[in-house]
Amino acid sequence: MMSQLNFMITIVNRPDTRRFFELLDGEGLEPMLATVGRGTAASEVLDYFGLEASDKTVFLSFVTGETWKRVKSAMRSRLQIDIPGTGISFILPVSSIGGKRQLEFLTDGQNFTLEEESCLKETKHELLVIVTNLGYTELVMEAARGAGAGGGTVIHAKGTGMEKAEQFLGVKLAAEKELVLIVVRQQLKNAVMRAIMDQAGMKSKAKSIVFSLPVTDTAGLRLMEDIEE
Hints:
The chain has helices at residues 17-26, 43-49, 65-78, 100-106, 137-146, 165-169, 189-200, 224-228; strands spanning 5-13, 33-38, 55-64, 87-93, 96-97, 125-133, 153-159, 176-185, 209-215. By secondary structure, it is an alpha+beta fold. The radius of gyration is 18 Å and the shape is globular.
């Protein structure tokens, strides 16, 4: 089932970037995107957990449940990720992906069979994650708004393993990427994803890949449907 596919987010100290790449390579996996970040916790919190306010590298990958078990074990044994201050890795269930070829591209090298789309009970919203070429976020947002979505958040990132995209998608993907995050009502998800795929997908210059993650709760999210009611 689709719930067996997960979006893995891993945050490590910048000096450990190469070690993490080598770990994934050893497990036959490579991150889809990498970006940079910085710790923001208060000094007393950092001291308590043994952390430093240092520069971070953030890796975004897709893993099956089976792959996650292997990678988690490897991170614990080879990177000692459980030692405070080393890093953190976690997974979120993927509910849908915008296209079979995109799914094959994202799960290359992993044992995964597409079955039915998953939907968590009581889930009212979905987080749409759109990976698009640099400079095309407005095209993505225009498509999303046209299908009923509100605003979005953009994060700059660098794609990794883009050379294998042509094998699955029939196109070459640029390395410089932007990550667009949009929260929509669950009943709008399919329409918004379809609009993005049609207007800013692989046939456009944006070359967008879109997938969704279930949102179990929200705060501060004001939608037009609520205002109208």
